[in-house]
Design a protein that fits this description.
Blueprint: H1 6-10, H2 18-32, H3 41-57, H4 60-69, H5 84-92, E1 111-117, H6 119-124, E2 126-137, E3 153-154, E4 163-168, E5 171-176, E6 185-186, E7 199-210, E8 219-222, E9 238-244, E10 251-253, E11 256-264, H7 265-270, E12 272-278, E13 281-287, E14 296-299, E15 315-322, H8 329-343, H9 351-368
Parallel strand pairs: 1-9, 11-15
Antiparallel strand pairs: 2-7, 3-6, 4-5, 8-9, 10-11, 12-13, 14-15
Helix pairs in contact: 2-3
């Protein structure tokens, strides 16, 4: 039988936050845990599905592989814990003030960097240099936190386990060791530059490759460029979140671009040809005679190629007829003559105005009838 989508199993969207992912898994684990559903194979199967989905989606590498290749990208790598209690304890441990210590060192925190781009940079793609303040592994102690020439020793309180067990009535509760804070090691002689933390503050300059077509809200992950883990371990990731600034000419909507083009009354009436801008240069736009304000013209393929693939969008130009201003006496006289000439044609020259006037008359007739 085909496996269910992991996001569907946990009832979350693809852009779910880590906190909401954990919350959703906790709810399902509580509901379907075998200890609460003895003799119910259906509940046990649902627990296993939720556990497998959670293990994949909380691992950045597995999650990336799953989103690219589906179940084929993670088959053989999911569900690798040694029983129900393992992941259950990791998720629920914080209810009791700390859970089972994971094997190996802790992972550093992920970071977010807000990057502002102009529209041209976002559409064409570019290489951007950013400067990020971040905690990095201490060069003096190599991240161990211990003074050079010394080394951390096994914690005497938890004997290197990283946690201690407390008896509370009938319950035995496992808590993070208060002495070593879950590390399993104690530092007798702390490193001076990092004060035993194994990390120091530094400003890193990084190069970010912006793929063509990104838009506001898109994120670029720089693996391993987040904070270093305390006292060694895998560093976190840096997520560069894109924000595209407003453009003076164009407005973007997905793959399409929009712009407003002011045209003169004579051009709209008699027709003509205009030069309009695109991100690739100027193009000619043919304006037919008797064009009305608000008319939308589509220039195919002059929009944006989406970052996730698909056809290039279009540029849509909406014309706006501009009323002449600062007229001379002679120009005013000519317009009055034109108006008199147009009025002689009745509704023939102004069908929309005539239709609107008739509609207003019918409206008032109904009110007074």
């Amino acid at each position: 039988m085909a496996k269910k989508d992991y996001y569907e199993v946990l009832g979350v969207s693809h852009n779910v936050s880590d906190a909401d992912l954990k919350k959703s898994y906790r709810r399902l684990a509580m509901k379907f845990h075998p200890d609460r559903n003895k003799g119910n194979p259906d509940a046990e199967e649902k627990f296993k599905e939720a556990k497998e989905a959670y293990e994949v989606l909380t691992d950045p590498k597995k999650r990336s592989a799953y989103e690219r290749f589906g179940h084929a990208g993670v088959d053989g790598h999911a569900g690798g814990s040694d029983g129900f209690s393992d992941i259950f304890g990791d998720v629920f441990g914080d209810i009791f003030g700390g859970g089972r210590q994971r094997s190996g060192s802790s992972r550093g925190s992920d970071l977010r960097y807000d990057l502002e781009l102009n529209l041209e940079e976002a559409v064409a793609g570019s290489d951007i240099k950013i400067r990020v303040p971040v905690l990095v592994s201490c060069g003096s102690c190599g991240g161990s936190g211990a003074k050079k020439g010394s080394a951390p020793v096994t914690c005497s309180t938890c004997n290197g386990m990283g946690n201690v067990r407390m008896q509370q009535g009938f319950f035995s509760v496992q808590q993070t060791c208060p002495t070593c804070r879950g590390h399993g090691k104690q530092i007798k002689e702390p490193c001076r530059p990092c004060h035993g933390k194994g990390r120091v503050q530094e400003n890193k300059t990084l190069s970010v490759k912006i793929p063509p077509g990104v838009d506001t809200g898109d994120r670029i992950r720089l693996s391993g460029e987040g904070e270093a883990a305390e006292r060694g371990g895998q560093p976190g990731d840096l997520y560069v979140e894109v924000h595209v600034r407003d453009h003076k000419i164009f407005t973007r909507d997905g793959a399409n671009l929009y712009c407003e083009v002011p045209i003169s009354f004579p051009s709209a009436t008699l027709g003509g040809e205009l030069e309009v801008p695109t991100l690739g240069g100027k193009v000619k736009l043919k304006i037919p005679a008797e064009t009305q304000t608000g008319k939308l013209f589509r220039l195919r393929g002059k929009g944006v190629k989406p970052v996730r693939g698909g056809a290039v969008g279009d540029l849509l130009c909406r014309v706006r007829i501009e009323t002449p201003v600062r007229l001379t006496k002679e120009q005013r006289h000519l317009i009055r003559e034109l108006n008199d000439s147009l009025a002689g044609g009745g509704s023939h020259h102004n069908p929309q105005e005539d239709s609107w006037v008739k509609g207003v008359k019918q409206f008032f007739d109904k009110l007074t009838g």
